[in-house]
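Customer escalation, tier 2.

The customer says the design service returned an amino acid string that "doesn't look like it belongs to this structure." They asked us to rerun it and document both sides in this ticket. The original structure tokens are below, unchanged.
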């Protein structure tokens, strides 16, 4: 059978994929900075936004296909395909958004999302009910899966890059193009053969006109969610005023985002670190900080006499502290090099001793030993 595509619907499907990815990735960037039930809500919202975008893109893309036979869709498989997209996307976001994004975690999350996109597509194709048979070119099927995995991995790397929120739009564009590229490569892999006889299908099917309405509603919901997410968290007037020198008591609760903490406008690095003690927020001078230790998705800040709870992750702080003074020496520790008192080599790893009676001795991982020795001016 000869198939053609409506270019307007093809374009609309790509836009839907990008918008859904943008809404989901904007939510996903906030996951690591939240706690409790709000964290779960954000993860679910991000998964639904991206999964719905994938599902909507697929079926708008299918509506763009013109065949000489009538196409309907099995209701159960249609719903299963949407569920697959949401669940697998959520799992990929969960892996990528918690803790430090290592190469292994990025590869696993990208593979899951890419396979989720591909699985959703082929489950959706299995839902097609028409008087034709569908065969696939194995090479193009493999190519479609590879496109989904590679582009999803790149999109996640851009989305969770700590250097700024401005990368969310490029990441969403890459992910939207990945979803669309995977879909249309998979469609190129499909060959529609006319059936020898007209077959009556007993399975419940969704009329294309009803499907178009459902997809349109889903697309509008995604666009609405994106609009709400794009609104600023608070007016500039409500942001915390610059703290006084030294250790000061904040009048308001801790800022919800690390961007709200006192920082140098030129470099973007923090000038004071907000920590919590006795239900109050203190702004700690960086000179007083001896080390920072990971505590689940949060951190404990040590000043040589005690420790404070900080609501930001170790990865957030690594990106926002001056690397000339603060060095990550272990997956669980950042140290202030100004407080380094001694360094001991222990086989291939190391141990750095810091100033202060209550300051912990911090382990140094094998891969960070050369970096630390160079920062301390030690010979290799």
């Amino acid at each position: 059978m000869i198939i053609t595509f409506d270019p307007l619907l093809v374009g609309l499907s790509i836009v839907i994929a990008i918008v859904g990815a943008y809404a989901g990735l904007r939510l996903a960037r906030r996951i690591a900075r939240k706690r409790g039930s709000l964290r779960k809500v954000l993860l679910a919202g991000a998964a639904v936004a991206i999964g719905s975008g994938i599902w909507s893109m697929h079926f708008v893309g299918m509506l763009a296909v013109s065949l000489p036979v009538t196409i309907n869709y099995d209701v159960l498989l249609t719903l299963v395909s949407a569920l697959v997209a949401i669940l697998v996307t959520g799992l990929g976001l969960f892996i990528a958004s918690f803790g430090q994004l290592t190469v292994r975690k990025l590869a696993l999350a990208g593979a899951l999302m890419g396979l989720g996109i591909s699985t959703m597509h082929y489950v959706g194709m299995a839902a097609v009910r028409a008087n034709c048979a569908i065969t696939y070119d194995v090479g193009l099927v493999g190519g479609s899966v590879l496109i989904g995995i590679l582009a999803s991995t790149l999109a996640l790397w851009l989305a969770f890059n700590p250097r700024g929120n401005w990368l969310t739009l490029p990441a969403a564009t890459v992910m939207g193009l990945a979803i669309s590229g995977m879909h249309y490569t998979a469609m190129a892999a499909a060959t529609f053969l006319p059936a020898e006889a007209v077959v009556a299908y007993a399975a419940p099917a969704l009329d294309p006109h009803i499907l178009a309405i459902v997809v349109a509603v889903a697309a509008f919901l995604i666009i609405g969610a994106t609009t709400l997410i794009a609104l600023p968290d608070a007016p500039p007037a409500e942001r915390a005023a610059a703290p006084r020198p030294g250790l000061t008591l904040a009048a308001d609760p801790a800022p919800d985002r690390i961007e709200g903490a006192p920082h140098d406008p030129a470099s973007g690095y923090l000038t004071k670190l907000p920590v919590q003690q006795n239900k109050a927020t203190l702004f700690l001078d960086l000179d007083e900080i001896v080390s920072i230790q990971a505590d689940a998705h949060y951190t404990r800040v040590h000043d040589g006499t005690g420790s404070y709870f900080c609501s930001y992750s170790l990865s957030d702080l690594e990106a926002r502290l001056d690397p000339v003074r603060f060095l990550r020496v272990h997956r669980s520790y950042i140290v202030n090099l100004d407080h380094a008192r001694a360094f001991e080599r222990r086989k291939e790893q190391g141990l750095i001793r810091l100033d202060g009676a209550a300051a912990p001795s911090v382990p140094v991982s094998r891969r960070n030993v050369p970096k630390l020795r160079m920062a301390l001016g030690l010979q290799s």
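Tier 2 assessment: The sequence is consistent with the input. The radius of gyration is 26 Å. Residues 4-230 form one domain. Sent an explanation to the customer and offered a walkthrough call.
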